[in-house]
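Exercise: predict the fold of this chain.
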Amino acid sequence: MITFYWYPKCGTCRKAKKWLDDKGISYEAVHIAEAPPTKEELKAIYENSGLPLTKFFNTSGMKYRELGLKDKLKDMSEDEMLSLLSSDGMLIKRPIAYDGEKVTVGFKEENYKSVWA
């Protein structure tokens, strides 16, 4: 079962959700701001993704800019980044779809086709 972390007001999240719905792919939708993944969940998602941990940050978000993370991330440890991400769902790039093995971060239709179709 896919866990789909999303923010309902996010247009990209809505596109990804519609894509999953149109393909008849079942998932559990989790509101990322109300129930962000825990530090342990994020660590598992990150490790399965093969992506750099910095790719999990919502770099266009207000919170990211307010905290000045662009300059701070390069000096942070993996543990500090995971703690920060799990502290506020709005810092996390969305949507994230994860089934325990495969991961997609953000939404690009070609990527969803290759991973989830």
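Check your answer against the key: The two ends are 13 Å apart (CA to CA).
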